[in-house]
Amino acid sequence: KDAEVQALVAKLEKAESLAVRHERELSEVKKENGNLKIQMASKTEKSCEPAVKESVLSGKQSPRTPVPATPKKTQQGSILRSCNLVSVSKRRKV
After folding, report:
1. pTM higher than 0.70, yes or no?
2. Which region ranges are annotated with the description Disordered (predicted)?
3. CA distance from start to end of the chain
4. Domain, as residue range, for 69
């Protein structure tokens, strides 16, 4: 019986260590995912900022880029559109 109990205990410990490892891997993946989201956000902000700063520094409105009649339903398009909105709203405050 002792041998059986020890075998069961060993199995349990192995399962526990596996569970712990999975937990760790999962938290690392979640962390990476969070970092990626942060990177994406900072990239879109950076791409907006120079134009905004330029127009504020020069004190004149930069020529507006013509918006295509049929906006593409892409994520990049919506990001660009939100950039334009941000720069316009910042310009109005100045």
Report:
1. no
2. 40-78
3. 82
4. 2-93
